[in-house]
Amino acid sequence: RPESIVFLGGERAGLAIRCCKDAGYAGRMFAVHPKKTEIEGVPCVPRIADLPVGPDAAFIGIPADATIEAVRDLAAKGAGGAVCYASGFAELGEAGQKRNDALLAATGDLALVGPNCFGVINYVNHGSLWPTWYPAQATNRGAAVIAQSGNLSINLSMNQHEVPLSYIISAGNQAVLGFEDYLDVLIDDPQVTAIGLFLEGVRDVPAFAKSCRKALERGMPL
After folding, report:
1. For residue range 108-146, what is the model confidence (pLDDT) as tens digits?
2. Residue 164 in contact with residue 40, Cβ under 8 Å?
3. I need a surface site. Which of 20, 50, 90, 142 has the fewest CB within 10 A?
């Protein structure tokens, strides 16, 4: 539930800002760009260090190497969490793994979604970190969906069957946050009625099993 969001990048950042505005997000929005003075009506500062506050959340829509530097700067600024849209990390093999190691070293206490992911749709308070349009819905309570696949996440966001949703999370590479982390929080969220999972693999079987056991004990359908 971010009360402030910063958007980094060009076109993708602009689309993510437009999503928040169209959905009615009521929090503060900032943008960072070295050359632009504003993106979609949101004033820009040239560097993360120039932000007036450490934002609750960040959408990072810039190339992979620049993403690592941005994550380091956001962590130093005291940001809460970030979506890393860029690819080019562990999914690329040895070269990507070195970049992934650098990303982990830069992360600190930042709650990192991705990289190589599409982001998070937040139907609860509309503080979404999502770089493309999605239709609004009449309720802010419903199923949460966690998927490694960005394409599946996008398709689900376009559903026209009046399936109520609370969150859609595109998990990507799960460099920091994994399915078990998302489950642990979503199970306790009163706006979540059920949780849907689209898994390509489980990175930590004991932790995932513990979260599933918690869901069973709380009566949360998975």
Report:
1. 999 999 999 999 999 999 999 999 999 988 889 999 999
2. no
3. 50
SS (H, E, C) the chain: CCCEEEEEECHHHHHHHHHHHHHCCCCEEEEECCCCCEECCEEEECCHHHCCCCCCEEEEECCHHHHHHHHHHHHHHCCCEEEECCCCCHHHCHHHHHHHHHHHHHHCCCEEECCCCCEEEECCCCCCECCCCCCCCCCCCEEEEEECCHHHHHHHHCCCCCCCEEEEEECCCCCCCCHHHHHHHHCCCCCEEEEEEECCCCCCHHHHHHHHHHHHHHCCCC
169: tokens are: 């999370």
Q: What is the pTM of this model?
A: 0.94
Q: Which of 53, 44, 122 is nearest to 83 (CA)?
A: 122
Asked if residue 203 lies in contact with residue 151, where contact means CB atoms within 8 angstroms, the answer is no
Alpha-carbon Rg of the chain, whole angstroms? 17
